[in-house]
Write a structure and sequence with these properties.
- The protein is mainly β.
- It has two domains: 10-297, no CATH class; 303-481, no CATH class.
- The protein contains seven helices and 29 strands.
- The chain has helices at residues 28-40, 42-45, 107-110, 119-127, 325-329, 422-430, 463-468; strands at residues 10-13, 54-55, 60-61, 78-81, 88-89, 98-102, 130-133, 144-151, 157-168, 171-174, 179-182, 185-189, 197-202, 210-212, 226-231, 237-241, 259-261, 266-276, 290-297, 303-313, 348-355, 360-365, 367-368, 375-381, 388-393, 406-412, 444-449, 472-477, 480-481.
- Strands 23-24-20-27-28-29 form a six-stranded mixed sheet.
- A hairpin with a 5-residue loop joins strand 15 (226-231) and strand 16.
- It is globular.
């Protein structure tokens, strides 16, 4: 059950421009070295639009000149790590880490069925093992560990997750929904395997550590396991269900920053990364190469909020016009249930866009606006005007589909009307015309109709193509959609 790798000393230097940022060798070691670099190098940890510099009214840095760590009188812009290997461990919070001292006799009983082992079986295997507590000799030998201190020389500063990308073999975990296009039309969706890597960020001894499942687009998708909570003197473990988070929980706009640095104060934090042995996929990842990139930002002055209004009406209703669309969304259907407001059920809403500066696709999870039943928000760079999509995603209650399956899509790009079904085109013509190819300066989007496919068979071979087919929606002002001219 051990994952091992050996790598030579790695030298990483932060460059002044993102496009010149040196690539990191993809190995198990690089996962942890990149994470360590991100807490040890100001040019990597605090990221602005240019990649190496950050500028805001309350925190100003150029390169590594403004951020220093406690262990050195000068800022760190390179990291050299000797060769080491990573071994399976287990922890609930990243603060107390345990390594197997001997394996359970039950391990052989499930070794051939590791892909189908149940949570209860895995818990039984874990509790039948003997563990030892991690010691100083394990740090950066069997798991990654770094203590750092960062200081704000300005006012109170919130620090946010900007983006992330984790590669393990053929699996890519990132802030982007993996959509397959044919001739510019979305036709399919790809899903990575669940991930056994855990990353804990511990900002203060009195606070509960933030432990992240990199494969979770949102917190509800995180795969919690019965990890080792503490051990007896004999090494017998007691397990506890983890409470994992997602990177998206700490995006700008969520009102939940990763850190808050008080004015003129320093913040001590620790970052720990390990391979969680109680995850059923741990063995399946043996021998695969791994790399991680995490971006964190404080400069959000070039971002603005996008608001998604849920005024959706079921496909079974006709004669919905610009005069009655909002009232129609509140109609009551069978059993007194609303016919509309699809997004307002227990679902996940995401906004994806193509960043023309970073040259990458990004996905941010939208949060419900406090006090509003049918309004969601998420931040977007001000310069992004087109290639924007809104997605209604599956929940963990939908057992017959992959987590994060797209159920409905509203798109903003040049030929979105041409990709619509005939029924959706007819609905569009009766409403506010063809959906716009750009948002212009509008920040309000109104989801009004579906795509005309109605209920889609979850086993149909073309189910993803139907779910990704454009629905009807429009940009507008706070008071409502605007009639389009294209």
């Amino acid at each position: 059950m051990k994952l091992r790798t050996l790598a030579k000393a790695l030298l990483i230097k932060a460059k002044q421009k993102r496009e010149n940022y040196r690539g990191i060798a993809k190995s198990y070691v690089s996962l942890f070295l990149v994470v360590i670099l991100l807490v040890g190098s100001a040019t990597a940890w605090f990221v602005s639009r240019e990649g190496a510099n950050i500028s805001s009214d309350i925190l100003k840095m150029t390169g590594t000149s403004e951020i220093r760590d406690d262990s050195s009188s000068k800022a760190v812009d390179e990291v050299i790590i000797p060769e080491f290997r990573l071994e399976e461990a287990s922890s609930v919070d990243g603060r107390n880490l345990y390594f197997p001292a001997s394996f359970s006799n039950n391990v052989s009983d499930v070794s051939s069925g590791i892909d189908t082992i149940t949570d209860l079986q895995l818990k039984t295997v874990t509790e039948g093992m003997v563990y030892r507590e991690a010691n100083a000799g394990d740090k950066n030998v069997r798991y990654a560990y770094a203590d750092k201190t960062i200081t704000s020389s300005g006012g109170k500063t919130d620090v946010w997750i900007k983006g992330y990308k984790i590669e393990i073999g053929d699996n890519v975990y990132e802030d982007n929904i993996d959509i397959v296009y044919e001739n510019g039309k979305p036709v399919n969706q790809k899903f990575p395997d669940s991930c056994p890597v855990r990353i804990a960020i511990i900002s203060d001894s009195a606070e509960t550590p933030k432990v992240i499942d990199p494969s979770a687009l949102v917190k509800s998708y995180a795969e919690n396991t019965d990890a080792v909570y503490y051990i007896t003197q004999e090494g017998k473990p007691t397990t506890q269900k983890t409470n994992l988070d997602a990177f998206s929980s700490f995006y700008y706009g969520t009102e939940n920053p990763l850190f808050t640095i008080e004015a003129g104060k320093s913040l001590n934090f620790t970052i720990v990364a390990w391979l969680e042995g109680t995850h059923k996929n741990a063995r399946a990842f043996e021998g695969k190469k791994m790399s991680v990139e995490v971006e964190i930002e404080t400069n959000v002055s070039e971002m603005e909020m996008i608001y998604l209004h849920d005024n959706t009406v079921g496909d079974e209703y006709d004669n919905i016009t610009k005069d009655n669309y909002k009232e129609a969304a509140d109609w009551k259907g069978g059993n007194g249930q609303p016919s509309g407001h699809w997004l307002s059920n227990n679902v996940v809403i995401a906004m994806s866009y193509y960043d023309t500066v970073d040259k990458t696709y990004k996905t941010t999870v939208m949060s419900k606006v406090k006090g509003e039943n049918y309004l969601y928000q998420a931040a977007i760079p001000m310069h992004v005007k087109t290639d924007i999509s809104f997605y209604r995603l599956s929940t963990t209650d939908d057992k017959d589909v992959d987590k994060g399956t797209v159920y409905n899509s509203w798109h903003t790009y040049s030929n979105v009307y041409d990709q619509m079904t005939d029924k959706a085109k007819d609905w569009s013509d009766k409403l506010f015309g063809k959906p716009s190819s750009t948002r212009g300066n509008y920040v309000h989007y109104y989801a009004i109709r579906g795509n005309g496919h109605g209920l889609v068979d979850h086993n149909a071979s073309d189910r993803h193509a139907k779910w990704l087919s454009p629905c009807v929606g429009y940009w507008g002002t706070e008071s409502g959609p605007v009639q389009t001219s294209n």
